Amino acid sequence: MIGFRQFFLAGLWALALTAPSQAADQSFCSDDPRYPEPKDEDLVFYLQLSDKIDTVVYVVNRRADGTVDTSDPVHVYWRWYEGTGERRELTFLQRNLAFGVQLAPSQDHPGDYVARLNAYPNIPVLVDEAADGNVRALMTIAGKPAQLICVYVERRQLLGLLPQVLYIDFFGRTVNGGERVVGRFTP
What is the pLDDT at residue 24? Predict the structure, then answer.
């Protein structure tokens, strides 16, 4: 006959197996379970690096009234997952040489912006505010119009200060249909 203690422990075990996880969702751009998907409010897209799980987050910069701050529409910072998940600002060099963005009003889409990563200014991303107020990053990925979700940078450390980028993968969902798409850029 099973004792109360074994019955109680078996019940707790069953609950643990069926309870929803409180952990962050798996990253959209990596199968590695160490890479979580950021859940920051007003997330536009995020960038992850092959050699660290900390994530660069790109969010909408809103005014107090909730409208997009047109003088500085996107704010970029670290989500420090190697620690407690806290937010940390980019350093001057990170912002100006690598992960920061230059934004300019779009000539083709009034009210939208063209964003260019400082490290690769030849790759434009349209920052678009939809009718519902949500902001998204749009670009062509694998030849299809898509919403950019995540950028994954494969890199290796050289003897110098700056790492060498081997390739950059852009992950998104097609604008029409939501099909997952991946495109690779090799510098």
Answer: 60
Can you list the pairs that 33-38 forms with residues at least 24 positions away whose Cβ atoms lie under 8 Å?
36/81, 37/150, 38/79
The dihedral region occupied by 17, where left means phi > 0, alpha psi between -120 and 50, and beta the remainder, is alpha
Tell me the two tokens of residue 126. Answer: 């349209």
- 142-156 pLDDT, tens per residue? 999 999 999 999 999
Match 């992960």 to its residue by tokens.
Answer: 99
Distance of CA 141 to the CA centre of its chain: 16
Residue 83 has pLDDT above 90, yes or no: no
Look at phi and psi of residue 159 and say left if phi exceeds 0, alpha if psi is from -120 to 50, else beta: alpha
DSSP bridge pairs for 117: 101, 120
Total Cβ atoms within 10 A of residue 2: 7
What pTM, to 2 d.p., does this model score? 0.83
DSSP string across 8-71:
HHHHHHHHHHHSPP-SPPBPTT---TT-BPP--TTEEEEEEETTEEEEEEEEE-B-TTSSB-TT
CA separation, residue 96 to residues 7, 28, 101, 129 (Å): 60, 26, 8, 25
